[in-house]
Each structure stands twice: as structure tokens, then as C-alpha cells.
Amino acid sequence: MATEVIFPDNAAKAAQAAAEFETEKMSLSMGPSHPSTHGVLRLQLELDGEIVTKCDPVLGYLHRGDEKIAENMTYNQFVPYTDRLDYLAPLANNVAYAIAVERLAGLEVPPRCQAIRVIVCEMARISAHLLGLGAYGIDVGAWTIFLYTFTEREKLYKLFEELTGARFTTSYTRIGGLARDVPEGWNDQVLAFCDQFLPILEEILSLLTRNKIFMDRTVDVGVISKTDAIAYGLTGPNLRGSGVPLDLRKDKPYSGYEQYDFDIPVGTKGDCYDRYLVRGEEMRQSVRILRQAIAKFPSGPWHATDARRIFAPPKDKILTSMEELINNFMIVTEGPLIPAGEVYFEAENPKGALGFYIVSKGGGVPWRLKIRSPSFCNLSILPKICVGDLVSDIVSILGSLDFVMGEADR
Amino acid sequence: MTAPADALAAFQSRFPQATPRPSTDHPAVNVPASEAIGALTFLRDEQGFDFLVDLTAVDWGSAASPRYTVVWHLFSTVRHDYLRLAAACDSDLEPTMPTSTVLWPGADWLERETFDMMGVVFTGHPDLRRILMWDGYPHFPLRKDFPLAGIEGVLSDPEVSAETGTKVIAAPMAGGPFVASPGEINMTEAEPRARDESWSEQSEKPGDHS
């Protein structure tokens, strides 16, 4: 008679194996110089085999003390420092900062200035998302995307250069206006960019959206629930990827965003794939906004005209009128005359809500300037979502959060 | 949905000790430090301000009392309005504030940053470490009595110090970011913004010179 073969069930087998081979946790420092940490972020990981059991992000490698610096210079002098927050979308930072100070001064800029600001913000959004997408492609093994997106980004930088004189550190806004008006024919170039960009964008996205490898790396990875997204203060595409339809351009319109017709894409699951899809769609929507803004591009002044002690007078006036010369001198040396008070303003930047909390005691220098950095807040959810994932998923999650350390560390 | 003004009125009747805070942009209110968490809970659960967008502190200068004010900015995802809540810290020398991490996990890093920069201790915070400066850094850089050019201190890593034989370094680099080593160039000429009222080439710089 044959003996009955007993197969021990898998759970018992696993328990036996665990007792036999006792494991210990490994501590791994990922970064600060690691290609997938997108800058100088260090993750202090605790691993059980390949599973992350603890993740402690270490920040501050790029801390420059921007808030301290801001307390020691006039409002206009701080504009170049805002370039260096989210250095992938300096124009959007410039605009957010200028609007915050203008709110404090109770100053409205004319429609043409608002329209120019919307145009540059949306161009900055496209440029930032293109970089985010290209870098994300590299993170998960799709090199080609990067070459496509950088080609498009280069075209945008050509336009930025023509508008502001700089490709990267634009410093384009001034309190109460802009550094200069748009050059002649520039808007047509932006339209031409839009026309050729949309088909290329479709091509870029088609390389990823139904790509098996890309989906394997991103679908159901790094899931952030709606409640978590709000509780951790996530903003921007990371929040909308989790299905929260919150966009300050719609909910708290500034700079005339209420005039434009556009949609807010939201995700359903809140995984890395959703965040990627949201960014892709946002670029299409930005093109929509660009076309509308240029179609109804207003004429008139491109800076506030009733801001005598805030916005510098035109050059020909400075050279011919003693009063204007004195006024210009005062604005440059003492800074724009801003009343005492406090203001909090957030703008919907490519990475999320960039906020400025400014406390003024009057005069040309802020008493306290706090920068609410979307990347900083978005990163704070990492210790929660990384636990239980594989080390290789960390790369995917970091890329999908699309942060910039210049902004997180300030 | 109630208007922000109604939210403030409801708030006032619930917290009679609260005083309106002068504001030109969003509704704002001052509460005593002891009632801050109760007020935040009320605002989050009953008035719909469910999103903590920002948390920071303001130093009003060493002559002021109360010297430190902690400021919360809340956003309502339903009503799309902001609200500013401020609470002055009771002590000017050792400022403390109850933690709001119990309400929003996102307050964790914001409070760590406020502690790091301003030295406000959030009581009950699960893990109050420095976040932007390194562990063991002895100063709070955003306080008004901290000079812009920084204070020279002991090298943070004893191993590096033993290896290089350097006891102290300028941290951050004295004389602004463009001067390679302190003393070679006249600091105030090289970087006028680094000039600070508290010290100059003639009078000694504060800090550890061991």
C-alpha cells in the first residue's frame, strides 16, 4: 500500500523558512547624488530584502536661506531668487511672487500684463512637464522620451530668451508689471510653437501611455488616496492624480485665468500612472489656454500705470524729467513702497501651489517672507507611500512626484 | 455653504478669547496658544477648512513681546477660501506651541522646518528634528538676531574635522557666496549685502572662535 504524500501548505513552509533563515534589516542611503533622486535628495532606507520597511528623506543639501536673504533686500531684488526655486519653471515663480507683493500693495495690473503673465505661466508649465516627463522616462527605462521632450523644450527656451533675454533665469516680472513688453511677432511664434507641438506631444505620449514596460512600472505603484493627498498637503498634478479636482487657476483665479476655457484633468487611482496621465493632459490644456490668451490678447499698457512709488517709470521719462529720475532712484535704492500688512498668495505652478506669505512693516523690504514650496510638501508623503514597495518602485515613485530640490530646500 | 465671514462669526462665538487679526486678503483671527489646536480642529471639522496649506512662524524681533507668532494658513477644498490663524507663543525665550500633526500629517515637516529655522518647539510632535540644517546645528537662522552672513561654528562632522585638522569653518561661507576664504578680501566690499548691523571688520563677529 502506497503511503499518502502530504504536501505542507505554503504558509507553514514559509514560517519554517523564516525560522530557519533569520534575516536582518539593511540600511541603505540612496542619494544625495543619485540619478533618480532628481537633485540632492537623500533617502535613508531600511530594507528587508528588497522591500522598503522605512523611508526617511533627508533634505537641506540645497538650502540657501532664501527666506533670510529676502528679509535683507528690496522686493524687486528678490525676483532673481525666485528663478532659483523651481528652476524648471522660473517664469511661473516670477509671476507668483509678483502677484503676492502686488496683493500686499493692493495693486491691480492691466489686462495686457495679466495676459502676458498667463502666457508665460502656461509656457513654463509645458516646459516643466516636458522635463518631468523626459526624466521620468529615463527613470523607468525609456530613454527616447527624453530626447523628444528636450527638443521641444529647447524651442520654448528660444522663445523665453527672446522675451526675457535669458533662457533659464528669466527674472521677468517686476512688482507692478514686467521687465518689458512682448517683442513684435513673439505671440505668433508662440502660436506656431503650439501648432507644431500638439502632434509631437501625441507622439511622445503614445510612446508611454500604452507601453507595457512603462505600465508595469507605474500602474498601482505609489498609490496615494484622496484623503492622504489632502492630509499631507499635496498640490498640483500629484493631488489631482489622486482624484481631487483642485486647481487654483479655477478655484481661486488670478491674473485673469477665469476668462479662459480649460479642463482640469484628474486621476482615478492616485498611482504613478495617473500622475503621468494628468501631466500629459495638462500640457494639452496649457496649449488651449495659450491659444485663447493670444487670440484675445489685449492692447494697452503692460505695467501698472497708477503705481508711482512701486513700478519704475519709463526710461525716456527718467532721462527727461527730474521728478521721474528721483522716483526711479527711490524705487531702486529703497525699494517699492509697500504698505504694512500681511498677505498669503498661492499660484498654481507646474509642481503645485507655490505660496508666498509676506509680512511687511511698510517700506521696500519685507519683514518676513515665507515660501510655501509645493515640492517640500509633496515630498512629505514619501515616508508613508514608500513602505512596503520594492526599491525599484522608489525610483518610479520619485519620478512621478516630479519635485525640484531647489524649491524644496530653498 | 457659509461665507468666510459667517465662518469667522461662528468661530468667534465658539472661541470668545479669539480676536480678529487685521487682514486685507483672507479672513484672519488670533487665538491664544493654548486654544490653537481646539480652534484648528473646529475649523477643520465644522467649518470645512480641511487643507493645511502652510504653517510658519514670524519673529517680531528681540525687542518685541510676544516675540514669536505661529501662523497657519488653511484652505477649504469645498468652499475654496483661505483662512489665516495666528497664535503668539507664550514664552519669548523658549517658544513652544502644541503640535498640529494630530490633525494633519502634512504638518510634520512644516513644524520641523519652523523649529529648524525659528526655534519654536512643537510640543507633542512625534519626531521634532532639524530638516533643512544639519543635526547638531546650534543656531536658528531665521531669527532676527541671527546675522545674514552666518555665524562661524565648529565643523559638524568630527570625523571630517579629525581628517582635515580643521577645527572651525565658516558656515555658511563668511562674506557671502562669492568669497573663497574669509579674511582674504574685505568682506563688506566684496559682498555688501553680507554686512550686518551686529558686527563689522572692526567689531568682533559673534560665535564660537575656539
Characterise this structure.
- The complex is a heterodimer of chains A (410) and B (210).
- Chain A has helices at 10-20, 66-70, 79-83, 90-105, 111-139, 143-164, 186-208, 212-218, 226-231, 237-241, 248-251, 272-295, 315-320, 322-334, 374-379, 382-385, 391-401, 405-409; strands at residues 26-30, 42-48, 51-58, 173-174, 177-178, 341-349, 352-360, 368-372.
- Chain A has 410 residues and is mostly helical.
- A three-stranded antiparallel beta sheet of chain A has the order 1-2-3. In chain A, strands 6-7-8 form a three-stranded antiparallel beta sheet.
- The model of chain A has no long low-confidence stretch (mean pLDDT 88).
- Chain B has 210 residues and is an alpha/beta fold.
- Chain B has two domains: 4-123, 2-Layer Sandwich (Beta Polymerase, domain 2), CATH 3.30.460.80; 147-210, no CATH class.
- Helices cover 21% and strands 20% of the residues of chain B.
- Chain B is built from five helices and nine strands.
- Chain B has a five-stranded mixed beta sheet with strand order 1-2-5-4-3. A two-stranded parallel ribbon of chain B has the order 6-7. Chain B has a two-stranded antiparallel ribbon with strand order 8-9.
- The A-B interface holds A 59-60, 63, 65, 67-69, 72-73, 103-104, 106, 228, 230-235, 244, 246, 251-252, 341-346, 353, 355, 357, 359, 367-368, 370, 372, 376-377, 379-381, 384, 409-410 and B 22-26, 28, 50-54, 56, 58-59, 71, 73, 77, 80, 82, 84, 104-106, 108-110, 113, 117, 130-134, 141-142, 146, 148, 172, 193.
Mean pLDDT of chain B: 78
- Return the structural class of chain B: alpha/beta
Low-confidence segments of chain B, given as residue ranges, are 168-180
In DSSP terms, counting alpha (H) and pi (I) runs of 4 or more, how many helices of chain B?
A: 5
CATH architecture annotation name of the domain at 68-307 and 337-377 in chain A: Orthogonal Bundle
Q: Strand order within the widest sheet of chain A?
A: 1-2-3
The CATH topology name of the largest domain in chain B reads Beta Polymerase, domain 2
